[in-house]
Amino acid sequence: MVKTFDGPSGLExxxxxxxxxxxxxxxxxxxxxxxxCRAIKSNPLTTSIPILMLTAKAEEMDRxxxxxxxxxxxxxxxxxPRELVLRAKAILRRKQIPxxxxxxxxxxxxxIDADRHQVSIQNRVVYLTSTEFKLLFELASxxxxxxxxxxxxxxxxxxxxxxxxxxxxxxxxxxxxKLGSMxxxxxxxxxxxxxxxxxxx
Length: 201
What we know:
The chain has about 200 residues and is α+β, with helices and mostly antiparallel strands. The chain has helices at about 5-15, 35-40, 60-70, 80-95, 130-140, 150-155, 165-180; strands at about 20-25, 50-55, 75, 105, 110-115, 120, 125, 145-150, 185-190, 195. The longest helix is centred in the middle third of the chain and has 15 residues, at about 80-95.
């Protein structure tokens, strides 16, 4: 485990050692934690590193901003060490390759390779966070079937957030943006959740 105490040092270590998980405090000297998160997630070499944000800010808008920047989870102070460990373990579980018989999904120009943990469109790699990859795999492997927000929270995040339905909405929006025109295949079912359109439709 490597500890750093300011934003630039943390960013440097993330690029250097590419850890399996980053616990990121938003209130950092020299460089704000949000800027560190943005820099990590915008770099193809570090974008897949999961980030657990740690902050004293508990307002919903702060959580939404954190998720929009690519954070995988958000813990507010004060917190119990046990909660932090449980959330970290949940993040690492969903980073693993989805336990599905189907390892490669091809839908139109979209190719999802679970073994390589890679997504490409027309042979162009699309860089996704581990949570975004799991969300896409969950939707695409069950294309044509509606997935409720509650089911996606349980399947992708590993446990149920208390009323955090907007977490799913935020990640779906980011996923659509990264997929470009293929993002239109993720359909919103109002009042229920989402589904990945059948190729035949």
